[in-house]
């Protein structure tokens, strides 16, 4: 199975380092012949992202903070200028004040609620709107979400509410863009130790709990997520849109602690 993405070009948003979910997806896309551009948030990340992009044959790097609409306009203008069209987009971005990713949801501040919703949910709408004119021949957009959107996961708090909005956005965007042959889907990934995840209170406990209680009795890897990303971004999933696809070793189907799971 080679060359599934041959001749396709796309933008990866949200690569921070080689632990990022975006990296798992980018590697699989590159293996299958895709041409990639990367956006990153601020110069501090550029020195990490550049060598990773180069290792996948890309010199196309764009500085873009998704909470800044002018920065988004500039970023997409750069892609338009260099490529004219794109076939796919990966949105792997989320952020909240880590002081509110512990304790109780009821204590969420208005400022952090709005910021979290803006960066973690609205930004999918903002990037989709700007990608549209470059997807005249159809396309595929994938975002990353988490089970905390569906069920309460202690400490996930406002991020769970933002992910619920993100998953609803996937459905509304899929319906808006379907007539143009553009598909929009989400991957609901199981917990993986990344920079963003390290901000979540008691994340090690969440990891252990999932490992012991998921049907596959392990945690997912960024390679697992990458494989699902490749499927959703390639023509293999040509009939799939508006979907939240779980890549969580089956954790979301389980209703209670496994009999063989030790206490932790
Ligand atoms: P990560 O830290 O590697 O990636 C998060 C990215 O978001 C970083 O590249 C960061 O620069 C970017 N970002 C944050 N604010 C931004 C802004 N204003 N503008 C532009 N970029 C911004 O962590 P990750 O875990 O790979 O996160 C990627 C996505 O996967 C997130 O949406 C996250 O919620 C989701 N996710 C993660 C897990 C997990 O357990 N790690 C599970 C399910 C879903």
From TrEMBL:
Its EC number is 1.3.1.9. The active site is at 146 (proton acceptor), 156 (proton acceptor). Keywords: Fatty acid biosynthesis, Fatty acid metabolism, Lipid biosynthesis, Lipid metabolism, NAD, Oxidoreductase. Pathway: Lipid metabolism; fatty acid biosynthesis. The keyword DNA-binding does not apply. It comes from Novosphingobium barchaimii LL02. Belongs to the short-chain dehydrogenases/reductases (SDR) family. FabI subfamily. Signal peptide: none annotated. NCBIfam families: PRK08159.1. This is Enoyl-[acyl-carrier-protein] reductase [NADH].
């Amino acid at each position: 199975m080679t060359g599934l993405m041959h001749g396709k070009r796309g933008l990866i948003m949200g690569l921070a380092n080689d632990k990022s979910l975006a990296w798992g997806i980018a590697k699989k896309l590159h293996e299958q012949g895709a041409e990639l551009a990367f956006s990153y948030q601020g110069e501090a990340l550029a020195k990490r992202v550049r060598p990773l992009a180069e290792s996948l044959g890309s010199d196309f790097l764009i500085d873009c903070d998704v909470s800044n609409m002018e920065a988004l306009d500039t970023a997409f203008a750069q892609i338009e200028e260099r490529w004219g069209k794109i076939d796919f987009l990966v949105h792997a971005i989320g952020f909240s004040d880590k002081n509110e990713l512990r304790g109780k949801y009821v204590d969420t501040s208005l400022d952090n609620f709005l910021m979290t919703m803006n960066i973690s949910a609205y930004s999918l709408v903002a990037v989709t709107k700007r990608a549209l004119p470059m997807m005249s021949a159809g396309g595929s957009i994938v975002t990353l979400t988490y089970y905390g959107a569906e069920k309460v996961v202690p400490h996930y708090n406002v991020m769970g509410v933002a992910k619920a909005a993100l998953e609803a956005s996937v459905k509304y965007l899929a319906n808006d863009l379907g007539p143009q042959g553009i598909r929009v889907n989400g991957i609901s990934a199981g917990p993986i130790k990344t920079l963003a995840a390290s901000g979540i209170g008691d994340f090690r406990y969440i990891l252990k709990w999932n490992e012991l209680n998921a049907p596959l009795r392990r945690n997912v890897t960024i390679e697992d997520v990458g494989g699902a990303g490749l499927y959703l971004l390639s023509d293999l999933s040509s009939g799939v849109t508006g979907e939240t696809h779980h890549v969580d070793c089956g954790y979301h189907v389980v209703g209670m602690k496994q009999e063989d799971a030790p206490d932790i």
